[in-house]
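Hi all, posting the design record for the shared folder.

TITLE: backbone redesign
STEP: 1 of 1
STRUCTURE INPUT:
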């Protein structure tokens, strides 16, 4: 049995800006010497990554739709082993943001992981009697406070009325919230903004009280995944694209690859002239290549290296922004078209209206090296990119490939789904298949 102080924190109504309250809480805890491992309650990449700025650690992901209770408990314990506290962020009840998964539920994760539940409530909604009694939470954090007197008032009113403690609150920060909400998709807030949020939280919140409440979580049984994590028996070198254009990976996937015996070799499609030598697999994660389309297009040496790798039968996996880079053409945010790697005969174009990630279950009709036919893959479809096929003359056919979720040329596999392989570790084993003995022929 392991005893890990932990909390589930989320909004119980729209308009509370719970994510900014969580950033302030995380940074405040960090300032007091409490190392926090932050988790999202869904396996999607969020539009803003403030939790990483606040804690200094990459956020992890749990998901009650993708993962079993055993996998979630394993990941919680494994990823938080060197930290003082784990915080799982989400939304109680209906998602408060379009980027939150309607399938993965914080309430269910709280039950699986025995998480004390902390709801975020904006006191200005209380003044208008718009917030129902938080029957699904065990404690409350208040937002939108103006003074210590107001904090004392609501604490005196709510604790006997709702029967749960008010752990603290955050000063009203509407102007800062507005600036943070206006940041472009995928940007990280400045460290000074997280400090301002922490200062606004410190005025009304006792870190000791929050930590004591987190320690009320009961011990969890230790989960073992030795069957999935046994070494694959063959050491492989995997080139992982890591730079400003490609930086969206699930850390659990990279951890699993290393635990299975892979050597991860970072490379930069922006700066490097060729792939690292002696690699067995190339892994291109998601990111924002549209911001660097010109530089990527002009790195002809890297494009030639990737083309040669694919042409000679090298195994490659790309998803989201990585798939966009491998298309024949890539459009930037101004609508200018640039040459991509050209593995897939598609045009990748940013959508005018970005769609939130959509949960999707895909049954493969044809086998690839990644998985055999009839394998069911589950993930969240990237809503940023629109894929358009090219005609034989190279012109764009103006019909979207909405039904295309997985494309394959030779041993190059591209996916519009974000796949967290921690939920499907058996698929990850196929990264280790010998290249001269392909698992499946497409």
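Okay, here is what came back for every position:
SEQUENCE:
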């Amino acid at each position: 049995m392991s005893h890990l102080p932990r909390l589930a924190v989320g909004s119980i109504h729209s308009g509370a800006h719970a994510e900014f309250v969580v950033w302030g809480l995380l940074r405040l805890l960090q300032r007091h010497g409490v190392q926090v491992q932050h988790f999202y309650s869904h396996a999607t990449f969020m539009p803003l990554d403030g939790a990483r700025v606040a804690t200094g650690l990459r956020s992890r992901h749990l998901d009650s739709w993708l993962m079993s209770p055993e996998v979630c408990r394993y990941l919680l314990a494994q990823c938080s082993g060197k930290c003082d506290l784990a915080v799982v962020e989400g939304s109680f009840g209906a998602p408060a943001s379009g980027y939150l998964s309607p399938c993965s539920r914080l309430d269910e994760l709280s039950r699986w992981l025995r998480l004390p539940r902390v709801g975020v409530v904006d006191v200005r909604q209380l003044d208008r009697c718009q917030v129902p009694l938080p029957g699904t939470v065990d404690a409350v954090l208040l937002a939108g406070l103006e003074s210590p007197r107001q904090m004392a008032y609501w604490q005196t009113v709510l604790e006997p009325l709702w029967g749960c403690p008010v752990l603290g609150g955050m000063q009203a920060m509407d102007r800062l919230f507005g600036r943070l909400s206006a940041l472009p998709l995928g940007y990280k807030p400045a460290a000074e903004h997280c400090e301002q949020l922490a200062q606004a939280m410190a005025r009304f919140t006792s870190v000791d009280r929050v930590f004591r409440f987190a320690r009320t979580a009961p011990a969890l049984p230790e989960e073992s995944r030795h069957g999935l994590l046994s070494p694959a028996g063959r050491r492989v070198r995997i080139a992982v694209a890591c730079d400003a254009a490609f930086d969206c990976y699930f850390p659990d996937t990279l951890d699993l690859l290393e635990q299975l015996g892979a050597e991860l070799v970072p490379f930069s499609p922006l700066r490097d002239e060729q792939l690292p030598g002696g690699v067995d697999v190339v892994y291109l994660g998601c990111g924002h290549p549209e911001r660097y389309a010109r530089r990527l297009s002009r790195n002809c040496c890297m494009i030639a290296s990737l083309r040669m790798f694919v042409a000679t039968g090298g195994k490659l996996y790309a998803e989201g922004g990585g798939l966009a880079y491998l298309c024949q053409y890539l459009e930037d945010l101004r609508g200018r078209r640039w040459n991509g790697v050209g593995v897939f005969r598609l045009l990748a174009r940013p959508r005018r209206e970005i769609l939130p990630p959509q949960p999707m279950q895909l049954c493969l009709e044809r086998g690839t090296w990644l998985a055999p036919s009839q394998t069911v893959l589950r993930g969240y479809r990237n809503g940023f990119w629109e894929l358009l096929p090219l005609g034989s003359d190279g012109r764009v056919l103006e019909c979207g490939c909405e039904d295309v979720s997985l494309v394959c040329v030779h041993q190059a596999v591209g996916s519009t789904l974000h796949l967290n392989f921690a939920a499907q570790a058996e698929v990850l084993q196929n990264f280790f298949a010998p290249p001269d003995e392909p698992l499946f022929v497409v």
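COMMENT: The chain has 15 helices and 22 strands.
Let me know if anyone wants the other runs.
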